Amino acid sequence: MLENSLSVLLSRLDFAWITSMHILYPPLTIGLSLLLFIAEWRWVRTGDEHWYRLTRFFEKLFIINFGAGVATGVTMEMAFGILYGPFSQAAGPFFGNILGYETITAFMYEAGFVGLMIFGWGKIGKRMHLFATFNVMLSSSLSAMWILVANSWMQTPTGVTLQHGIFMVHNWVEAILNPDFIFAFPHMWIAAVELALFFVAGISAWFMLRNRNSALFQRSLKYSLIALLFVTPLQIYLGDGLGRVVAQAQPAALAAMEGHYHTYNSNGSVNSGWHIIAWPNDTAGKNDFAITLPHVLSLLETHTLNGKVTGLDQFKPADRPPVLLPFYSFRVMVAIGFFLFIVALWGAYLILRGRLDSQTAHSHRGYLRILVFSAFLPYAAIWTGWWTREIARQPWVVYGLMKTSAGVSKMSVGSEILWLVCFAVFELLVWGGAWYFFAKVIRKGPDMESPVIEGGHEPLGHLERPSDDQAHPEYVRPVY
Amino acid sequence: MQSLSTIQNELSFIWWIALGLSFMLYIILDGADLGAGIFSLFVQDEDERGAIMASMAGTWDANETWLVVAGGIIFGSFPLVYGSAFHYLMIPLMFALLSIMIRAVALEFRVHSSASKRFWDWGFGLGSLSATFFAGMALGAALKGFPLSHTMVPNYVGGDLRFLSAFSIWTGVGAVVAASLAGGLYIRARFERRCSTYQQAGSWVAANFYLALAAVVVTLIWSLITFPWAAAKWTGPYAWVWLLLGVVIVYAAFKMRLASTRQNDMRAMLWLATLIVLMWGGMMATMYPWLVPGTWTIYDGANPSNSLVAFTLAVGGFIPVMLMYNWYQFWVFRARINKMAAYAH
After folding, report:
1. Which end of chain B has fewer CB atoms within 10 angstroms, the N or the C?
2. How far apart are CA A214 and CA A209, in angstroms?
3. What pLDDT digit, counting tens, does each position of A402-442 carry?
4. Min distance A63 CA to chain B CA atoms (Å)
């Protein structure tokens, strides 16, 4: 059982809340900046106006999302010290350094170019703009890499020794390229790309369903579905790889994810059963109820029929993670991963048979609706994936080396509740606002009228005063 | 705790300078944006408020990020200070972060809103005001120092409300006044001279100039009385250096006022930046070798691992590059605007 005094539990909830509300934005920033770069590059190379319109349209959604990501992200940087002071002090020599790298080589880098990318149209040249977009793409992926280095190290803390209560780094390469990072970073990065592709595909499907700008959106639909044909199975492969790393490096975490309490059955044979669903009971150390397939767990983790998989009974009760949340959030994530793979297969089939262009798409309305629905699923998969990862690591904050209860700041319960309530209100407002303005921009649709900005350094237009002073002025773009 | 090698001592000093530089850039750059936000609370016209936000659309994000960089440097180079000081400052930092959050989304959402414009205007204005106040309060509270445990790694011990004192409230107010001045000068530099916003910012700058002057004098006298480390430096054998610094500061303040009344708005902003450099540098020199007076010196709080070497090698070179593309960014977005900018992007 966990050392879960109310104070520790509240600290965990405080942090869980701000991270869960932050992870909603960066994946779209990372994935969409890549897609924006590709679209803008195609426009610069071919001069095809459709690419330009798509870039400008999705850029509007990008900046709403980016603003929300910065708003919730600044908190993250400070929250380690506020909520987890002793952890920050002990792990600072590695963990703090990595976050320092992230702020300097990624966060600041990105912030510098994103302003040019969004508001630089007509102020900087075409190639300079493409360069800005490229930098936003590169820096957001770099940012993801550093964050995953830091987080993976908490899962598999290699390259450090604990001296006088502080983690001293003795091998930087081992610490950065820790075993978990090798699969966790690609898994997260591909998750970001997959999310952005489904986001673009879902929005494109929505426009096709309404028969608005079909000629434009059939293009983004086509390319995102073809990309997803490769991305979705790759993600399943990477997820399996990460699962095997967890099985080796964090057996207790894997046992929690699978609800695997007993290493052996009561008759002495290896317990190889994999639960489809179960009702775990941590106090009793068993599942109260389970539907179990024999041999599947051993097949998954050891690739043999009766290989031994360590159960939770091999760990002291104080070192066992809770089971219920990791067990179900893991299953939800996996189910979404496979569902999205099928959606991608189906979509690619339709695309290759030429059934999703602006002429024929109306006969596949069911599929287009599924695509709109699928745009939300990657968000759920990312949430549940992170919950699995972070909860199954408990009761450790640095796996095997530092307990969460030793890493939290000793705050009063009152201030912990104040934190939770304040951030609940503000971050729900940010979330609601972001999705409300997504919807608003999408409903308004892409701007097809204003002239294409060709060379940069162009006047973007002027405002004309209305005849009566009550109405708002009209924004007029010059037409050449 | 182990002691540091010579090279680590030197690197700690260098990163202390880098930390000071990031905070200083944050104060110069985002100070103006925050002040413009406070100013917007007093602007009646909806389009004028929108134009104030539009004026910083391309740059606010990078300006604010200097704070995140400063946070990253404390975490990376001074983790022992980071983990204890931020815990001590939980409440003011929390309110500053919430304010920054609402302000950031107001800046991005407003342009797409119709019915909720008023709401985001308030979010932007009040967020700017309270972010400035609580950041100033956190700075004042840090100057007072805090108690540490006598464990292997010294953690913060003390209540959640220890940060609260007459001095920390005063520094919060002082920060608001200083930001208001910076914001006024920024508006003067970014708006066309015939705009009513430009005119309004003129009297705003005049009022806040005298308020800021008074606030600086009060803060200096207060510090002289309450902080022995400050009094020892200022009245020590190098008193003439401090006096000279004082004279230079008064001269710069005078030049700033003169430039502003003559409508040399960019020059006034640069004089203000000079003032901030002089005063922030003076404060750091007064505090040396303390990072948190009475609690952490630069060398006690520094990263004890070989990490400082790694940190320097890995990211030291990026800081000049960052300064370069930041400069380019300001160059691109330098043009004066008018209230029609509320619609432009």
Report:
1. N
2. 9
3. 988 888 988 888 889 999 999 999 999 999 999 999 999 99
4. 7
